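> forwarded from #structure-qc
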């Protein structure tokens, strides 16, 4: 049951809630469990698929919607009444885009919640997206991609990155945009209308939570839209310059030193005094 005036606390995963070892520290876990048990909504908001979030969802004993694929897939694992959101890329568009981008990239991965299509094996993506239990399809997308995927991630030729040409090609599709991963040789293509921010707005509207009661934590560019719809936005100390300049504040510590725990405790005191 929700609190009479619940907070919506949205947390990014990698680089934010999780430390370098991909672990939620004990004090952070206890705090988020307590908030969830008291009827506040703790929402995991990630670029990851749902299968990579269930472990943490269960670990925190949550009862709230999940935001996956940066807002392209939003659902409540324990409440079928919550309006499910699923955005897909037409497979013909994916194939056309990849063919145009081939001179500038060396790999592409697409997926939905049951299947992964990847041009060639990639150990980083395998670890990040959790391949276990998935139907894997390797090779040319022209031959393997037979349904519409929810996500599109590409790897650049890092030593010869041509960001301008990549943006020009993606710009030929007015409904799409491109986001480069900070410090890495990957980028993702996404719908301009889909973001963690749009997902957070949907969740807040459904539960009747005003902007002033939304708290968001993140460390990367894909969290900026989430910050825009939050009353309190917190960039992790370990985040890049773009995320920091778009946040209301910076976390007390980084993700390897319980940044969420220390900063959220501080914020909760402020909220209590305000109410």
């Amino acid at each position: 049951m929700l609190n009479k005036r619940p907070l919506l606390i949205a947390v990014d995963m990698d680089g934010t809630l999780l430390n370098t070892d991909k672990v939620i520290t004990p004090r952070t876990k206890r705090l988020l469990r307590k908030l969830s048990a008291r009827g506040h909504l703790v929402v995991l908001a990630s670029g990851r698929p749902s299968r990579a979030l269930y472990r943490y969802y269960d670990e925190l004993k949550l009862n709230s919607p999940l935001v996956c694929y940066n807002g392209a897939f939003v659902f409540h694992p324990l409440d079928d009444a919550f309006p499910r959101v699923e955005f897909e890329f037409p497979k013909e568009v994916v194939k056309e885009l990849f063919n145009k981008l081939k001179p500038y990239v060396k790999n592409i991965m697409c997926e939905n919640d049951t299947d992964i299509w990847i041009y060639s094996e990639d150990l980083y993506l395998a670890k990040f997206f959790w391949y276990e239990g998935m139907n894997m399809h390797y090779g040319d997308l022209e031959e393997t991609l037979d349904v519409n995927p929810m996500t599109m991630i590409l790897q650049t030729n890092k030593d010869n990155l041509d960001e301008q040409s990549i943006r020009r090609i993606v710009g030929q599709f007015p409904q799409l945009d491109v986001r480069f991963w900070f410090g890495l040789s990957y980028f993702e293509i996404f719908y301009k209308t889909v973001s963690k921010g749009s997902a957070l707005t949907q969740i807040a509207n459904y539960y009747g939570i005003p902007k002033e009661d939304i708290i968001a934590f993140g460390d990367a560019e894909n969290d900026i839209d989430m910050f825009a719809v939050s009353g309190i936005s917190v960039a992790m100390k370990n985040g890049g310059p773009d995320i920091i300049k778009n946040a209301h504040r910076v976390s007390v510590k980084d993700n390897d030193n319980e940044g969420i725990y220390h900063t959220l405790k501080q914020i909760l005191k402020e909220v209590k005094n305000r109410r």
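QC bot note: The mean pLDDT is 92. The first strand starts at residue 8 and ends at 11.
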